[in-house]
Amino acid sequence: DTGVSQNPRHKITKRGQNVTFRCDPISEHNRLYWYRQTLGQGPEFLTYFQNEAQLEKSRLLSDRFSAERPKGSFSTLEIQRTEQGDSAMYLCASSLRGGAEETQYFGPGTRLLVL
Amino acid sequence: AQKITQTQPGMFVQEKEAVTLDCTYDTSDPSYGLFWYKQPSSGEMIFLIYQGSYDQQNATEGRYSLNFQKARKSANLVISASQLGDSAMYFCATGRAGNNRKLIWGLGTSLAVNP
Fold it and tell me: Which of A60, A17, A66, A104 is nearest to B44 (CA)?
């Protein structure tokens, strides 16, 4: 399967702990996006990378959140000192810049529950 | 600023019938794209169909078609010959065409297909 993959699929943690999620995009895609989706809502943009450069960050991304894409391939999203309000589905998507429609293809998501 | 409005929280349709899911948008971008995604209970966002703001014809992909009315700023999704597997959340989203970088999403519509 050459789609977008995300690990872990589920994460339960206690408040105050750090968590890290990984996203592996479609191999030839040079853009990678992170979104957060809470119950009953549509996804909200968090950040995106073009190759290894982080080009845009949402104001939703507090200083407890950090994302990296060190070699322009996989990406990690780390949340430090988790809070109960961080409980959500974290979605990763990738796309190929330059396509007429530049469709974003999504992974299965990581469901985070902060107790 | 961009905004997507989906006014139907839930819809029901009989198997094999057609259904229309509404989407209106607001954007200041001169060139933009409109997307529909399906999200089953598993959580993964599945791309369905794309419409570019300068496309002269309505987009079609198999049983999915997009009824694009630019003057009304609407981009309704039509699903023909509904199947039980179509039961899911459906999200409309918009982004800058050709350089989307991020998608702005509606709240979604929950579709239930009855046998």
Answer: A104
DSSP state of B58: -
Question: Are the Cβ atoms of B44 and A33 closer than 8 angstroms?
Answer: no
pLDDT in tens, A65-91: 999 999 889 999 999 999 999 999 999
Cβ atoms of A47 and A58 within 8 Å: the answer is: yes
Instruction: Mention every residue, 6+ apart, whose C-beta is less than 8 A from residue A66.
Output: A77, A78, A80
CB B58, CB B51: distance < 8 Å: yes
Of A33, A89, A105, the CB nearest to B102: A33
* Pick from A16, A20, A21, A48: nearest CA to A34: A48
Task: Compute the average pLDDT of residues A41-63.
Answer: 92
